[in-house]
Amino acid sequence: MVFLLVFDIPQTAYDNGGQFLSIWITPATVCLAIKLENNYQYLKENYIPILTGIISGVLLHTILILALYLLFFFDGELFATLYPKSITTAIAVGVSESLGGLESLTVAVVVFTGILGAAIGPGLVLKS
Q1: What is the Cα–Cα distance from 78 to 2, expressed in whole angstroms?
Q2: CB count, 10 Å around CB of 112?
Q3: Is the per-residue pLDDT at 69 higher than 80?
Q4: What distances in angstroms separate CA 26 from CA 12, 58, 88, 90, one per listed residue?
């Protein structure tokens, strides 16, 4: 959002660019589902640590977004935009829309979160 304000980019121009990115979101989600299906046995054997990680992540994410909301006096629209940042983009857009958030900014936040996770995630796993 700061990027749009600093460089004086109109919301409509940003939305038009986001539509191009949205074309590739559904195929990427399908590829993720295929990868999960191929690893079903591993997931089934390790469901307790996986669920523990998912639940911990969801709780921490909710607390973090709520803390940012209270600390920086976000309005409800920005809260609804940031809240679905840690799920797939295709689902996050629907969640953001249903909560009254800005869909195009939600896409940017989800993509940024994914890139950040891909960049620092392997290093964190290797250190643990």
Answers
A1: 12
A2: 11
A3: yes
A4: 22, 23, 10, 7
Report the alpha-carbon distance of residue 113 to residue 85 in Å, rounded. Answer: 7
How far is CA 2 from each of CA 5, 9, 48, 76, 105, rounded to the nearest angstrom? 5, 10, 40, 17, 11
pLDDT cut 90: percent of the chain above it: 12
Tell me the C-alpha to C-alpha distance, in Å, between residue 1 and each of 38, 94, 116: 38, 19, 18
Instruction: Determine the Cα–Cα distance for residues 65 and 27; give it in Å rounded to an integer.
Output: 29
Which tokens sit at 67? 């803390």
Report the Cα–Cα distance between both ends of the chain, in Å, rounded: 34
Per-residue pLDDT at 15 exceeds 90: no
Instruction: Please give the model's pTM, rounded to 2 decimal places.
Output: 0.61
Q: Which two tokens stand for residue 6?
A: 């600093």
Say if residue 53's pLDDT is above 80. yes
CA-to-CA distance for 95 and 80, rounded, in angstroms? 8
